[in-house]
Design brief:
The complex is a heterodimer. Chain A is built from 15 helices and 20 strands. By secondary structure, chain A is an alpha+beta fold. In chain A, a hairpin with a 4-residue loop joins strand 5 and strand 6. In chain A, helix 7 crosses helix 9, helix 7 runs antiparallel to helix 12 and helix 12 packs antiparallel against helix 13. Chain A is globular. The two termini of chain A are 33 Å apart. Chain B is globular and about 65 Å long. In chain B, strands 15-12-14-13-17-18-16-19 form an eight-stranded antiparallel beta sheet. Chain B has a five-stranded antiparallel beta sheet with strand order 5-6-10-8-9. A four-stranded mixed beta sheet of chain B has the order 1-2-4-3, with helices on one face. In chain B, a hairpin with a 4-residue loop joins strand 17 and strand 18. Chain B is built from 14 helices and 19 strands. The chains are: A alpha+beta, B alpha+beta. Chains A and B meet through strand 9, helix 6, helix 7, helix 9 and helix 15 of A and strand 9, helix 6, strand 11, helix 8 and helix 14 of B.
Chain lengths: 463, 416
Amino acid sequence: MVGRENLVEKAESLMVYECDGYTLERAAPELVVLPRDPDQVARVIRILADAGVPFVPRGAGTGLSGGTLPVAAPVMVCTSRLQTIESVDVRNRRVVAQAGVVNLWISRRVQADGLLYAPDPSSQGACTIGGNVAENSGGPHTLKYGVTTNHVLGVELVLPSGEVVQLGGAVEDRPGYDLTGLVVGSEGTFGIVTRATLRLTRTPESYRTLLAVFDSVDAASEAVSGIIATGIVPAALEMMDQLILEAVESAFHAGLPTDAGAVLLVELDGAEAGLEPLAERVRGVCTRHGAREVRSAATDDERALLWKARKRAFGAVGRLAPNYCTQDGVVPRTRVPDIVRAIAATAARHRLRIGNVFHAGDGNIHPIILFDERDADEVRRVLDAGREILEACVALGGSVTGEHGIGVEKMAQMPLLFSPEDLLAMTRVRAVFDPEQRSNPHKIFPDAKVCVETRAPRRQAAM
Amino acid sequence: MSAVDLPQGVAIDGVVPSRVADAATVDEVRDAVRATAAAGGSLIACGRGRHLDVGEAPARCDLLLRVTGLSRIREHHAADMTITVDAGCTLAAIDAALAAEGQWLGLDAPAPDDTTVGGFLATNLSGPLRASHGTARDLLLGLRWISAQGELVAAGGKVVKNVAGYDLHKAHVGALGTLGVLVEATFKVRPRPPHERALIVACADPRGAVAAALDARDAVEPAWLEAASGGVLGVEGPAAIAVGWLGIEPELDDAERRVRARLATVDGTSVVRALADAEAVALRRRLADFCLTPAAAMLRVATLPAALGDALASVSPAAAESSTARWTAHAANGVARVLADDASSVARLVADTRPRLERAGGSLVVERATPDVKHALSAHGGVFGDPGPGRELMRRLKDAFDPGRVLSPGRHVAGI
């Protein structure tokens, strides 16, 4: 039906699909289907429904929680070939994009009109809108602009039965329950989103992009709280520690100080007329918290280079160790210094190197744990350390994931956040969309352990 | 839970509850839901009852449960910029607590003194600030509710970024209490802007006003952007816009200057006056309260922003031409409210205009109306009209939360 050229069946080709950005567990699907348009997706799902076959939706495979790992689901349905931006409405600031459209393509498409698509995950050059919707993806600028769910007005959803429903749409305030809000972040467990209607945001007139250099992570994280306390909400407020700075600098030569304990990348945006007084206050807070230097990007190119360094930090870390594992946790913003200290203690306890590059303004941490997969004992310590860091986040009043999702990685941590009643309510809602649990089964919710082939992880692809 | 004597005249769209009770704790809410469910009864929860006229008339109501006793601010971590409050807490009380720390919620629902968090969420109220701050769903981080089974259930959390589990809290926003009795909510808060300013601009007609508003938005991104019949904005003539900005003085000066320059090139517009700080805030509040103007019916029309002028003309030809017509619009969002004075004509107006709006992906909801108007609408798609292709999933969602139809039966779309 989709044509042989849109199927992947050979074992060696299927290996590409055995994991996403989370590489600690692997399982290849038996068949990968790559439909070319939304209608083909619906037809494929209808065939799977008739046969009662479970399936896994997948976009670009940049996810970091194993959300696209096939677990007791033989067929993988990839939306990566649904690449059409179907309509752009500048006056109303709407765009309709198919699921396989890459995040960054949208902002590029509307750039000349002075608009952009605000959610900007670090992987935005590769990740797709379908995956963003499934994971409710974030990114550095979500501090001011909100995450994916704040920018999705409607979706076309292929239910696991094969039925196609349009939820929400370009017009706001549709009567009835906010089903779009439920679908965003449901990690592919409600069916497959094939199209989304997105809200576009005006491109800021001007920016102030500051790089504040600190001798210690402690001082930098205290400065984060200090900036928030002034009543300024920057567009982005990111931290990179020394280990990350070294990796990034050797990869991109952005002029970052490799001898610093940590830097804060602070971006203010808006009308030019209001920016300098705010920038001056941010500089003042950083200096008061011990910043030895606060630089400003003088040109658009300098700004672009700083952001390139930040967003590609994960890839650059590949230079430091054979393997690495990116964690994702959240703490209340004022607890950033506490969690950073807890991470350092965890690293010492488990004899691991852990770098930090994260959305400090949101309290959304991303410790990057370095290891060598050939060392089985080290792999075990990596897993233990990751779990302990997440438990520390919860103990500080936070969450086990801010933007990467639960997937398979964090199912065991769900009971740390939710009671049996909470989880029951969620599984009942899942049954509204997918009564047979055939769409992305065995994800999010801790259930009877299904056997997944767990192999030694290999080098993680640079994002 | 304490039973109270049935206050004189308590009725929800003409439906008189068999009993009224006050709950002051979560346990009391839970016990009331359990007892009602066990007896096969039905329950409507409310705060101060200010917004009970939103939605369809209930199918029945055995117990009206007032949760105004549940009125504490549970946690306000100013530096974390989050606040956790009881469902019976008023928006004014929350605003006072936040103001003390130089913060605000940034959601300007009508009648904050008389609107509880539960009512605010259940009816999905919003005001002019939605143009820049979004609506309740955008700032709601987590929610606790008592389920129809009488269990305390939570979704979301207390941190500003969190993707653990489904966003069940979003389903409750605008659900009119049909999925649970809300008891506690956590919101993201923002710094309270130091200054506010607004510009009132007279326009030739509703179409011209909507177009001028979007032109003003192209010049400088506003914090709020309203169009309205002239009288609502104190302007002679049929229509006007009010453009508002928040921030520090230099950026407000700049914004005002640029919008004036832009509108100087737009035919049929003339700047009437500029308002600063308290005056600008008062105008915004008055616009937020417009939806509560006593009338036979308050219609809420939603279209794409650029199509709103045409919709206003079609919904109420009177609004287009008469200087006595009264309407307001969140121009950046494509949402307008039109006041209908003549009860006898509402059903016909809805029947005539709703299908065209719905075909274009929009909606016409009769947001508030007298019981007789609601009754007359029942043959014309009710107060909500068609909720769209998600209708069946919505019914199934209700069944998943409340199979026994204990909670606010009949008040929502599609007989839910």
